[in-house]
Amino acid sequence: MSGIWKPARHKYGVVTSNFVANTINQALQLYIGETVHVLEEYWPDPKTDKVTWLRGCTISNKNKKGIFPCCYIAFKECTVENEGPFETVTPVEDAVITEIIFVLREWNTRWKMLFVERKQLFQTILLVMGELAKYRTQLASSTLTREKALEQKHSAIIMMDWGNSQLGLDLVPRVEYQQADPDQLSVVEMFRIHEQSVHNCQGAWQPN
């Protein structure tokens, strides 16, 4: 490569297509849905801002670094701490994706307690957790159309409301797929939002 490498301007992204690395020296194998920490970007012509290659690692394995095509990555907002050789990146993720991650962690603890007492619900919650994990991966991959992404967010929210109800957890009031801020809404608005959450868990969706 005859161009130059520069510190990355965009530090975090999601892999949008599988990248096979076995034919390229120092390349990093990537799989769709993985997240990457980008360290450097390659400029083939320093006079332009066109970037063709990136150097970095996957978030799941930071010890293995390599290069990969820029076109395989959808960049995401993130915060960077200790910028430099030992920097860390924290994604500023979509609210629904963040909530799915939190819900799966919280459900996992309570779900195990159902095995003895309510085996049927145990199996159902397991299936729903699998669906939510699938939604999270697809939403994070940025490969969905806007309409499909909104559809999946809506489905995920209904599933989370239903599961929270079944597990005795609090329902989460939301506005436009984000948790509602009580300080910004009237009592009537909060009541209507809460009613929608109750509707979600009582009849809007039922597991197959």
Automatic annotation (TrEMBL):
Keywords: SH3 domain. GO terms for cellular component: cytoplasm; plasma membrane. GO terms for biological process: small GTPase-mediated signal transduction. It holds the Pfam family SH3_2. The keyword Aminoacyl-tRNA synthetase does not apply. PANTHER family: DEDICATOR OF CYTOKINESIS, SPONGE, ISOFORM E. This is SH3 domain-containing protein. It comes from Biomphalaria glabrata (Bloodfluke planorb). The lineage of its organism: Eukaryota, Metazoa, Spiralia, Lophotrochozoa, Mollusca.
